[in-house]
Amino acid sequence: MKDKTFFLGDRLVFNYGQGFHNVYRVNGTSFQQCATPSLSEALTTGNDVITLATPGRKWYLCGVGNHCASGMKLVITVSSAEAPALAPAPTSGSSATNHKSPFISCVWMLSALAVILICMM
User: Does the keyword Nucleotidyltransferase apply (predicted)?
Assistant: First the structure.
């Protein structure tokens, strides 16, 4: 993700097993410490969509068990500009129109390491 460019209006999509993970938006200090605010602030649907509406750094983490400390966290920087228009694929007989960038998807899946760490708890 560190090489990705995020723009105003992009959407982050967090897909995960409901009840196994959650998503918190936190500040930089909480991100470094893997500290979560109150449970009521967690996104927990398993298909959480966050529209990037303001520029700047954004921090997200999973607040379940030791998931954050095991690397289930994300930091991004959102550009102050809207996403540049993409050139449409040429098709015969169609006129060219501009399209917004597709949704930016961040998929949280258990890796082999995370499965091992969870089983050790």
Answer: no
Nearest to 9 by CA among 67, 76, 84, 61: 84
Which residues, at least 6 apart from 61, have a Cβ–Cβ distance to it below 8 Å?
Answer: 23, 24, 26, 30, 31, 34, 36, 67, 68, 72, 73, 74
Can you tell me the distance from the alpha carbon of 60 to that of 104, in angstroms, rounded to the nearest whole number?
Answer: 15
Please tell me the distance from the alpha carbon of residue 50 to that of residue 13, in angstroms, as a whole number: 7
From the list 19, 26, 113, the residue with the least C-alpha distance to 75 is 26
Class in CATH terms, 6-84+101-120: mainly beta
CA–CA dist 22, 63 (Å, integer): 6
Q: Which residue do the tokens 């918190």 mark? A: 24
Token digits for 48?
């959480």
